[in-house]
Amino acid sequence: QPDKMSLEVLLDTPNSNTDRKFLLNIKGSMKPQKQLLIAMESPLTLPLTFEALVIDTELEQAISAKLTSATEEHFFKIGAHISGDINRRKYEPILEYKFPETATKSDKGWIGRKGVKGGRQQQQTALGISGAVYVEKNPGTPYRKYELKSVTVTTSNKKLTIDGTITIDANLVATDLKASYDKDTITFNSDIQKLGERKYIAKIEVLPSQNPDLGGSLKWEYERTPHKIEHNLVIVHGPDLKSEVSRLSIAQL
Asked: Could you tell me if 241 and 235 are in contact, meaning their C-beta atoms sit under 8 angstroms apart?
């Protein structure tokens, strides 16, 4: 069949007193899902199976992989659940994994997104991702707006949360983000535009709450014409991003 493939390889030593038979079986398919299955059997090693799956539906986009032997199982899945209409999609992250060393931490060793209907119930999270990303777009245009709502990466003793927006258009890239880590928050704002064929402007601001002296801003303006090049760069350092004192200005006219 055009959407499926298979390969079987058998290696043997017929006149040997020792069984050294090696069997490799590979199967793959493109529909209804992209899938790869590899199985290996030999008397010299434990039976080993590797399976990879690409899920691409209206409700879920994910990649999963599983490695299984007679005594152990390794599993990993990453992706997102999808909801909403075509102009404003909601993506909720999926992260699941199972390794032999995590199985002692919970009954099943599953780590990741909790509360998935029909999914596995996690008992303890060593590494996880939660929150949601909304993607807004205008049909027929390159406009995209990504809204991050409490997108959180957690480990056993750390947590990083990001909120804000990322906007992309034909001549625009802009961000308005806030990252929270422990007791510190960092704001990151940027606005990069192409105003003409050879005219650009870029603004970037970074400000940490716990160490505002490490904050700063950058403003760059550039224009090139057949007769001249105009270049202006202003860098501000410190908590006052509009400071007239703690700044470096470079101009080329």
From this structure: no
